[in-house]
Amino acid sequence: QVQVVESGGGMVQAGGSLRLSCTTSGLTFGTYAMGWFRQAPGKEREGVSCISWSGGITYYADSVKGRFTLSRDNAKNTLFLQMNSLKPEDTAMYYCAADLVFGGVCRGYEYTYWGQGTQVTVSS
């Protein structure tokens, strides 16, 4: 059974930083594309950042470019999202997802396995 588990969310003031982590079990992590998505109340789910299985290709939404950094450690089955210069508009539930195919951008419908999410709240 595949499990995807996020951690690292919390509450931070604007300008602060958080580091999200995502671990998986039940799949061969190093062969899966991974991504972070977020959804704020009343808004559609947004693809934040996604990465190919090797880590060689990374996509960022325009809203987070230059502030967020996505990386993966295939030896530790872990995905990281370093979030700097956080803004109140970054407040959302953040979800980690996995799929065998990397489409080049973050489209949620392309991802098969999802975690339960971790809440990020940025106060002004």
Radius of gyration: 13 Å
Q: How much of the sequence is in beta strands?
A: over 45%
Distance between the termini: 40 Å
* Low-confidence segments: none
Element order: H for helix, E for strand: EEEEEEEEEEE
User: Helix coverage percent of residues?
Assistant: under 10%
Q: Biggest sheet, in brief?
A: 7 strands, mixed
Q: Provide the residue-averaged pLDDT.
A: 96
Q: How many beta-strand elements?
A: 11
Summed up, the helix count is: 0
What is the global morphology?
Answer: globular
Helix-strand category: mainly beta
Characterise this structure.
This protein is mainly β and 124 residues long. It is 0% helix and 49% strand. The chain has no helices and 11 strands. It has strands at residues 3-7, 10-13, 18-25, 33-39, 46-51, 58-60, 68-73, 78-83, 92-99, 113-114, 118-123. The strands form 2 sheets. Strands 2, 4, 5, 6, 9, 10 and 11 form a 7-stranded mixed beta sheet that branches. It is globular. The mean pLDDT is 96.
